[in-house]
From TrEMBL:
Molecular-function GO terms, alphabetical: endonuclease activity
Protein name, entry field: Uma2 family endonuclease
Source organism superkingdom: Bacteria
UniProt-listed Gene3D superfamilies: tt1808, chain A
Keyword terms of this UniProt record: Endonuclease, Hydrolase, Nuclease
Domain Putative restriction endonuclease: 11-195
Alphabetized CDD domains for the sequence: DUF820-like
Length: 201
């Protein structure tokens, strides 16, 4: 769902009006309503929980903030609000805004981003693939538990799919996983996870 204001918003206007409202993000000056549902939030929470277990188990330098905005330095009117983001704690000292706001500007701070697909699936499969690749984020998960994405992204017939994107030479190489298939994560190589385990009841 997209709300189109009478004028495009600047990053500063967005931060003032919607910075604390986790329902919205800003892409190219356009206000985007993420329209989260209970099942959407349950899937995102399950992903974050499983990743946190791996971070502690493997003693990784990782942090998963409750809320976080990504403000690409190259983009004047963009503030992305991923469903799950894994940050490198060692890189947080290089973040210019982190001490005042939960804002990340440097792609090198981000180890992984996960988006749980909702009605605005076009952003997750297209615009964010470009944005996250430009930021050089090594791994990007697109968790389409309801099979909402377009046929060109998840195939025909549509079905629940996790697409894991690994950054190779600045471009995401994409691998799809369906129900019953164990996923393969570069950041979490020992993570034992199938899409089935994330599906909301």
């Amino acid at each position: 769902m997209t709300y189109t204001p009478s004028k495009l918003l600047s990053f500063e206007e967005f931060l003032t009006q919607y910075g604390d409202n986790t329902r919205y993000e800003l892409i190219g000056g356009e206000l985007k309503d993420l329209a989260p549902t209970g099942p959407h939030e349950a899937v995102a929470g399950s992903i974050a929980g499983r990743m946190y277990v791996e971070i502690f188990r493997a003693n990784l330098n990782g942090l998963i903030p409750k809320t976080c905005l990504i403000k690409p330095l190259h983009a004047q009117a963009t503030a992305l609000r991923p469903d799950v983001v894994v940050l490198d704690t060692a890189q947080l000292t290089q973040e210019p805004l982190w001490q005042k706001e939960p804002l990340i500007c440097n792609g090198s701070t981000i180890q992984l981003v996960a988006e749980v697909v909702s009605t605005n699936w076009q952003d997750d499969y297209a615009r964010k693939v470009e944005e996250y690749a430009f930021l050089k984020i090594p791994e990007y998960w697109i968790v389409d538990f309801r099979g909402l994405g377009g046929l060109q992204f998840i195939g025909n017939p549509k079905q629940p799919t996790i697409t894991i994107c690994q950054l190779v030479d600045g471009v995401y190489q994409q691998q799809q996983y369906r129900l019953g298939e164990p996923i393969d994560s570069y950041l979490f190589p020992n993570l034992q996870l199938r899409l089935d385990e994330l599906m909301p009841s």
